[in-house]
Amino acid sequence: DAGGWQSDTVVEDMDLSLRCYLKGWNAIYLPHVDNPNELPCTLSSYKTQQFRWLSGPMQILTKSFSNIMRARDISIGRRLNAFWFFMRYILFAAITVGVLAVPPVALWVEDWDWSWPQIYFIVSINFALAVYLYVTPFSIAYLFFSVAIGYFKLWAMISGLLGLEKSKTWKVTQ
Prior knowledge:
By secondary structure, the protein is mainly α. The protein has six helices and no strands.
């Protein structure tokens, strides 16, 4: 009823889930169900997995944007929820750009003075990142790791939005 399995994205399960959601279907989350071997065993495999997991939702967003807008079987709240699902990716991209922009702005902008606009810029970007990451014992390590590969994740999202050939390649990760 939702259109069946389609292989025009690299995250076809997410695509089918969104189409079911737009038909008004509901799902039940079962937190006790285990899925072994979910984490890739090497950094290279992790990057491959993350590229697929970030470019794929952008493929779905470009493919389904108008479907979300025109969905008749769901309320406006559910439609907004569908958009919010994709906004977390857009927020990640904005925060990544902001975090990566801090050093050049802080160090290389002419006539840098530590006035309130500059301090606000640095504090707001870091606060946004802290809210995004939540506060856990692993937040600092994850922060460094995320910033280190942030440019890579951003490229994956842009690749998916633009429909570049690399974003259409489905590689199995170990």
